[in-house]
Write a structure and sequence with these properties.
Blueprint lengths: L4 E3 L2 E5 L7 E3 L20 E5 L2 E2 L11 E3 L3
Antiparallel strand pairs: 1-5, 2-3, 2-4, 4-6
Amino acid sequence: MDSAVAGYPMYGMDGRWSKDTVSRLTGDQQTNTSFTDKTAGRVSRRYYIVAVDALGQGGFPSAPVWFQRE
């Protein structure tokens, strides 16, 4: 982890359409480099990661990572 980064919150989009809900899955201080979503089920889901600095400012979201993409 970069010393300027305080954490990496993880977001998930339930579904595959832009109208679907995006929710935060972890807190700002997530410092692990792996994540297991125990609530994923069998629906399509997109995941995004955002780097947050010590002031709590988030950067741009990552490119999406898909689970169960059709």
